[in-house]
Design a protein that fits this description.
Layout (H helix, E strand, L loop, with lengths): L15 E11 L2 E10 L5 E6 L1 H15 L4
Antiparallel strand pairs: 1-2, 2-3
Bound molecules: zinc ion.
The site of zinc ion (ZN) has 8 residues, from loops.
């Protein structure tokens, strides 16, 4: 298997560290996000929305819309 390399330290990226971060959308709204960081030098390789938190927030939003909470 060929691994990608970190753009900063040039090491093969075989694992990444996951850090929880806030993704701000303005107006005080936002999501819980995650950043994927090089395990060796902590350079941020990618940022995304936390899929588990997104699912939970979506369910909460649907229930709220239905007046169940
Ligand atoms: Zn690195």
């Amino acid at each position: 298997m060929i691994y990608g390399t970190c753009p900063k330290c040039n090491a093969s990226v075989m694992s990444v560290n996951l850090k929880e971060i806030k993704v701000n959308a303005g107006n005080g709204t936002g999501w819980i996000g995650v950043s994927y960081q090089c395990a060796l030098c902590n350079t941020v390789l990618s940022v995304g929305i936390d899929p588990v938190a997104l699912k939970t927030d979506t369910i909460k939003g649907v229930l709220k819309g239905l007046g169940k909470t």
